[in-house]
Design goal:
Largest sheet: 5 strands, mixed
CATH topology of the largest domain: Nucleotidyltransferase, domain 5
Order of helices and strands: EEEHEHEHEEEHHHHHEHHHEH
Bound molecules: zinc ion
Strand content: 15-25%
CATH architecture of the largest domain: 2-Layer Sandwich
CATH class of the largest domain: Alpha Beta
Shape: globular
CATH superfamily of the largest domain: ATPase, nucleotide binding domain
Strand order of the largest sheet: 3-2-1-4-5
Number of domains: 2
Radius of gyration: 21 Å
Length: 329
């Protein structure tokens, strides 16, 4: 029997950094959050290493019991070398070799993964993906990110390590402008920010619309929460927007289901925050976009880890790193 070991995880977010300590059999032993708003990496990196060492000591462990650490980081990044190149929400973090820094200061092996992949890994080891060999995780938040586990392995792709960019499959020729530069991406139709921006544009100068009333006439305050409220109140405009968002989600899900035959599609933020109102219309439209057999074999579920996913993202990356090396029992 393999001796029980431990792993550390770091989830580098735009405003917070989550640190977690877990055992290789999947128990979370420690978690902490550090501020990361407008920070300088020169200040933050030593704090990360110190907090991790402190967490290990507080659990009554020594660093030689920690088998590896994992870093969950936003892209764009140089994943192969573990360098945060230009994360959009951390303007002072430019070309930060975080993987090498933590290897050196913690004295253990580590890995670097993009945060959407880590979301999938977190659900795999700790949440709704436990026991699955084939599933797809979708972040469904301001943007749409994805992580694919196929035949029991995380799919990273080839040289660009960019597999899983599921928000940027084109669902409409010459369609809506996407933040990524392309037109007609799935995210441009169903991403939380894209939908809110569309509604802001369409309702500017219409103070009598229900959504505008819900945000006190401040068009810039229109968000998914206001749109959801208007849908629940049967506002015809909001319902039409929701319907298109759901139809496009079904179109994308159909592609994922036919391409990967997943056991589950695990949905993040918006799906668990909104519930059936989010998933039911997608399920209604789904038969138009994929074959019946893989559709019947795929369960559409919400994330189990929900807002705690950040504590699990880094440790799940570390567990997967050990698993890929055959070092996880
Ligand atoms: Zn795009």
């Amino acid at each position: 029997m393999t001796e029980k070991k431990f792993v550390l995880g770091f989830d580098i977010g735009g405003t917070k950094i989550g640190i977690g300590l877990a055992s290789t059999d999947g128990e979370l032993l420690g978690r902490e959050r550090l501020e990361n708003k407008d920070t300088d990496p020169a200040d933050v990196l030593p704090k990360l290493a110190a907090a991790a060492k402190q967490m290990v000591a507080a659990a009554g462990l020594s660093m030689d019991k920690v088998a590896a650490f994992g870093i969950s980081a936003p892209f764009p990044a140089d994943a192969a070398r573990g360098i945060m190149t230009n994360p959009p929400n951390n303007p002072k973090w430019r070309n930060v070799p975080i993987l090498d820094y933590l290897r050196e200061h913690l004295g253990i092996a580590g890995c670097f993964e993009n945060d959407a992949n880590c979301g999938a890994l977190a659900e795999w080891f700790f949440g709704a993906g436990r026991g699955c060999k084939d599933f797809i995780y979708l972040t469904m938040s301001t943007g749409i990110g994805g992580g694919i586990v196929s035949s029991g392995r995380l799919v990273r792709g080839g040289k660009a390590l960019s597999a899983g960019e599921l928000g940027h499959i084109v669902v409409q020729l010459d369609g809506r402008q996407c933040n990524c530069g392309m037109k007609g991406c799935y995210e441009a139709y169903s991403g939380g920010r894209a939908v809110a921006q569309r509604v802001q544009k369409e309702l500017a100068g219409q103070p009598d619309s229900m959504i505008m009333k819900l945000v006190g006439g401040k068009v810039e305050d229109i968000d998914m929460v206001a749109i959801e409220k208007a849908v629940r109140a049967n506002d015809p405009y909001a319902t039409a927007v929701w319907d298109e968002m759901s139809l496009r989600s079904a179109q994308a899900f159909g592609i994922f289901i036919n391409a990967f035959n997943p056991e589950k599609l695990i949905l993040g933020t918006l799906a668990w925050a909104i519930g059936d109102l989010y998933t039911d219309p997608i399920k209604k439209y789904l038969p138009r976009f994929c074959w019946a057999e893989p559709m019947a074999a795929c369960e559409i579920v919400s994330s189990e880890l929900k807002r705690d996913i950040g504590y699990y993202a880094g440790v799940a990356a570390a567990l997967n790193y050990l698993k890929e090396q055959g070092k996880l029992a």
